[in-house]
Description:
The protein is of the alpha+beta class.
Amino acid sequence: MKPFLLLTLSLLVTCLAPAKASDDKPNIVLFLVDDMGWMDSEPYGSAYYDTPNMSRLAELSMRFTDAYAMPLCSPTRATLLSGQYPTRHLVTTASGHRPPQEPGASLYPEKVAPTKPLIYAKSKNYLDPKIVTLAELLRDAGYRTGHFGKWHLGAAEAYWPDQNGFETTWFCTPDPGPPSYFSPYGVVAEGEPGNRQKMGNITDGPDGEYITDRLTDEAIGFIEAHAEEPFFLNLWQYGVHGPWGHKEEYTRGFAKKTDPRGEQRNPIMASMLKSVDYSLGRILDTLDEKGLTENTFFIFFSDNGGNVHSNGKDDRKIANIGPNHPKFAAIQDWKKWAGEEYPTNNAPLREGKGRIYEGGQRVPLMVRWPGKIEEGSLNSEIVHAVDLYPTILEVAKVGVAEDQPLDGLSLLPVLTVGATIEREAIFTWFPSPQGGATVRSGNYKLVKRFETSATRPNLFELYDLKADIGETNDLAKEKSEVVARLDALLEAHLEDAGALRPKPNPNFNEAAAKVVSTADFGLVPKQCETQLEEGILRVTPAGKNPFLGTAQVKFPGPLTLRMTVRSQAGGTGRIAWKTAKQESFSEEQVVDYSVADGSEWEKVEVTIPVKGAAGLVRIYLPGGDVTEFQSIEYSAKSGGKKGWDFAE
Length: 648
């Protein structure tokens, strides 16, 4: 063969051979945990959870003490892929599993009820295709890109990860959690037991296979397939989100364990975290075995703070429900292992997931890059999910998209040379009646509400997080100049981003706003109107037989009803009930109670001789005038209890 031909073939082979990861193109792994709180691992201070691989990673990484995500998952995920705050990408809540809105349609509802003072823009239910994602930029720069796990950024195929720059994918949709943590993962169509509907491109494994393990297998397969090329592995765990599937062999051990801090005690959550930790260990081991560790930029992060509201003692989901309920088995499993414990406890941080206090958005962040980032180091710089997009691009030496606004700053100088971040503040935008916005600047954090309530009476709250990490001492009144400065920063950001702010409701009726539908929390008014104000439920008759009914006391009788009540007119009321098996009420199933007239509160106790499990119970009002309640509580000898304390 002629030398010229040999040279030509040699050049051709060289051009076709995949480029290996190099200093210019290091591999990138983003390991994202769902609903993992700041305190949910040993390196961050947990003495209950068992996370040896997170500890192992911490010893090799820079660990951040003041890292922030959004209070819910979809906004954080959109921010990671766009480098933008929710004020700009408009994904403001966890609605990525819902049908997408029509492109270009207004996110503001045409009208809202007259009881609502403000009109809030809805969240986008998908990541806008116009946004140039992190994966698209890396793919176009020669990276092999793979997404594995939770997506929650668009249920329709047009918004799936393969349409956002990921070449290899394995995921479920719609989210927010997997249909099951155990294979088979498909969903059985109602009335068609043999027709299991697939979600996304997930595939079943052997019966009983655990999705966290399978997800890890798929991610390892991606690493092995592209070990000779630069790759971006986007591994977004389903754990530790509901439906809280767990390995009982792990859970059994944690059920016997106690937390020396006395804060964390949920064996299901501990079990799921152990599985996530094992997944992390397997990914780290694979990088070691393939000789890829030294040139892999590795990020460990969580999408929001720990869940402190699901399945607890005040959650309807943990109530006694019938065996025909679709969630009966899952709830009984939770009760067996966790009782009435919430998933986790974020103490010393305040509140958790879905809230704008620290427990809802301060999260773990560890970053490893051998030889470039100091191992076992601790950093207290204020950093945010919005910073990871420009950081990864700078690590990969890939430019940002032209004409696309970028809100984050690259953390590379912080990671590699210990630089400080030159910016005035970071922001949270969580528009809802219970939400608001926050500004973190230095040690100070400003909380700005859109609406006040009995439990959130002030529009502004100010906290010094260095002195008061638990946000217990509101400094807003004594440091009004700090409030004004931080509010000005927020207003400037909202203006720059074009945020969709809440708008006044032109149909707002202040009198109507005081009338509440107690049906929202399971106490249904019939032939009467309810008004909740200053801890008192005021019930005004609007028909001949006004009553408050509930279907949330399905306990075996007899029942005891306790009420704190008063009535201007006084008189005799009655309690009526029917069992779950009865189709209608019976005149024989009625007991009376009496209330004196006047302004004094009375504690009334009534025994309800229910035989069998209660179905519906009604409290008929005494007299024909207003009756007021401070509290109502039903209880059974079996231990079942359901009540309403209107002061809360």
